[in-house]
Design brief:
This protein is mainly α. It is built from 13 helices and no strands. The chain starts with a helix and ends in an 11-residue tail after the last helix.
Length: 407
């Protein structure tokens, strides 16, 4: 039986609603592609470091290139999608991702792999925010939660399946097999977007002054959802790295550590569409749902820090998956609901930068604090940040959407 997120997707594609659902389906594949590319390649390069001649410092630098490119370029390509339309940016980004992946096939030296990684990150910087903006516009204001939930579920599947598929491909066909599969996946997604996704008209843009841009990116309606996304992704990044570490300290097998990460991703993939749908029905608000998710994550971090056990590892993984599955669709839908169509791409690009900073900052924060003090205190510090962000969202977010021209 298919997971709910997959079953819902294929039901949509074949339903009588037609155009909207068929246009959204290739965007789900684009989301899966960027997640698979980021985590699948990272896992494989980590396991193949000695064979391909990478030092540990070189490995860290190569892996960081993907995220560095995304932090710098996502706002740029998001704004470009507002100017020329989301579809050409998505298709162009996927084609560039395919070319970057194929470049690694020529001669997989450390330099070639670094350039391929940089090219993949830059390409994902184009089609990822443009895809988020297209999801927002195609879904319509009344169904933002439902479709952002499905889009996020596919990304979660890419995060959990990417490392597994990547290792399997390398075992069967070598490193070139992985990059060839990524190129093929990007090519399929590009053709599917070109054929199935409708061209969204470019919305006339009012003339923004520098003061307008500063106000738009510092207002509460923007900063709070971005803080929610950054915190949620920071906890996710810590969980992916430190749950296997804690499993090892409990003398569990490496498979147990991998199973905790899989539990997190699968719970997130199941929860996101359900939470998004409940949000659209008015049964969950961003304020209540995000606060509850982060409070649960903070409690799980605290328990994991002070009473680690096998059961607690899997319980915490499920709690983190629930938090990510709750916060992500609510925060993205809230941000989209408060953004006019003429700057949807730029806003989504900026919001995704918050996620990237959280993804990098969370593990760095915990790692540095654990080095100076202890790992339990570091996890407790992250719990405090999660709790503070959740309470901030409770006090600052409005349950009633603000007008677009004021948010």
């Amino acid at each position: 039986m298919l997971p709910p997120c997959l079953a819902a997707t294929f039901t949509d594609v074949t339903s009588e609603r037609g155009t909207v659902e068929r246009g959204l389906a290739p965007l789900y594949l684009a989301g899966f592609t960027t997640a698979f590319g980021a985590h699948g390649v990272a896992t494989v390069l980590g396991s193949e470091t000695d064979d391909i001649g990478l030092t540990l410092l070189g490995l860290g630098a190569v892996l960081a290139l993907y995220d560095v490119a995304e932090v710098i370029l996502k706002p740029v390509f998001g704004a470009l999608s507002d100017r020329i339309g989301a579809k050409p940016v998505i298709v162009g980004g996927l084609v560039a991702f395919m070319v970057a992946s194929l470049s690694a096939l020529i001669d997989p030296t450390p330099l070639a792999l670094a350039l391929a990684r940089l090219g993949q990150g830059a390409s994902a910087s184009a089609f990822s925010p443009a895809s988020s903006a297209a999801v927002a516009r195609l879904a319509g204001r009344e169904r933002l939660g439902r479709y952002f939930g499905r889009y996020g579920a596919w990304k979660s599947l890419g995060y959990v399946l990417g490392p597994v598929i990547g290792v399997a491909l390398v075992e069967l066909a070598g490193l070139r097999g992985l990059y060839l599969a990524l190129a093929a996946l990007a090519a399929i997604a590009a053709v599917w977007v070109l054929v199935a996704m409708p061209s969204l008209p470019v919305v006339p843009r009012p003339r923004y002054t520098l003061a307008d841009l500063v106000r738009q990116t510092t207002e509460r309606g923007f900063l709070v959802p971005v803080a929610l996304l950054a915190t949620a992704t920071g906890v996710l990044g810590v969980a992916v790295g430190f749950l296997p570490l804690l499993a090892g300290r409990l003398e569990l097998s490496p498979w147990a550590g991998a199973a905790t990460v899989a539990t997190l991703a699968l719970v997130s993939a199941v929860v996101q569409p359900a939470v998004g749908a409940q949000r659209d029905r008015g049964r969950i608000t961003t304020r209540a749902g995000s606060t509850a998710g982060l409070v649960i994550a903070a409690a799980a971090l605290g328990l994991l820090a002070w009473v680690p056990s096998t059961g607690m590892l899997f319980g915490a993984a499920a709690a983190f998956g629930f938090m990510v599955g709750t916060v992500t669709p609510l925060a993205f839908a809230h941000r989209a609901a408060h953004t006019p169509d003429d700057r949807m791409g730029r806003t989504m690009g900026n919001a995704e930068v918050g996620r990237e900073l959280g993804d990098a900052g969370g593990p760095l924060f915990v790692g540095a604090l654990a080095t100076w003090w202890t790992l339990p205190l570091a996890l407790g510090g992250l719990a405090a940040i999660s709790l503070a962000t959740g309470l901030t969202s409770w006090w600052t977010l409005r349950t009633r959407p603000a007008r677009l021209n004021t948010e």
